[in-house]
């Protein structure tokens, strides 16, 4: 079932920001994610925007990769709630039509 949900399409998908997965994820974070967001809100919106501009699969990979990096580094600690926020953002991307609607969906869901 998880494999099928990763393939669900995103309505009105905008053009991809970079060819490679990492490049696309990085471009979304640099070009599309607003600065100075609270942590969980940033996770939610980032997950949604990566799903919109890259792919749902890449959004899941970005969220998991961030938590693994946190687990193995001295930076933020890995948190289950961050992963939950990423997944909510991905769901928001599936249900909305544009970037502003992703952010509004995250806010409506408490992120």
Could you give a quick summary of the protein structure above?
Helices cover 67% and strands 0% of the residues. It is built from six helices and no strands.
Task: Walk me through the structure.
With 111 residues, this protein is an all-alpha fold. It has one domain (20-108). 67% of the residues lie in helices and 0% in strands. It has 6 helices and no strands. The protein is globular, with a radius of gyration of 13 Å. The two termini are 25 Å apart. Residues 1-6 have low confidence and may be disordered.
Secondary-structure element series = HHHHHH
Computed structural class = mainly alpha
What helical percentage do the residues reach?
A: 55-70%
* Percent of sequence in beta strands: under 5%
Low-confidence runs = 1-6
Radius of gyration, CA atoms, in whole angstroms: 13 Å
Outline type? globular
Give the strand tally. 0
What is the count of distinct domains?
1
What is the average of the pLDDT values? 89
Largest sheet: none
Helix count, per DSSP? 6
Oligomerization category of the chains in this entry? single chain
Key words describing this protein structure:
111 residues, disordered N terminus, globular, 6 helices, mainly alpha, 67% helix
Topology:
Blueprint: H1 2-6, H2 21-31, H3 39-53, H4 56-72, H5 80-95, H6 99-108
Helix pairs in contact: 2-3, 3-4, 3-5, 3-6, 4-5, 5-6
């Amino acid at each position: 079932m998880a494999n099928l949900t990763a393939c669900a399409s995103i309505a009105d998908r905008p053009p991809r920001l970079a060819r490679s997965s990492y490049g696309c994820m990085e471009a979304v974070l640099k070009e599309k994610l607003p600065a100075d967001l609270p942590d969980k809100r940033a996770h939610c919106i980032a997950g949604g925007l990566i799903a919109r501009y890259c792919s749902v699969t890449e959004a899941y990979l970005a969220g998991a990769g961030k938590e693994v990096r946190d687990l193995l580094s001295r930076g933020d600690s890995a948190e289950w709630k961050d992963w939950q926020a990423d997944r909510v953002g991905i769901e928001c991307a599936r249900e909305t039509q544009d970037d502003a609607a992703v952010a509004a969906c995250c806010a409506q869901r408490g992120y």
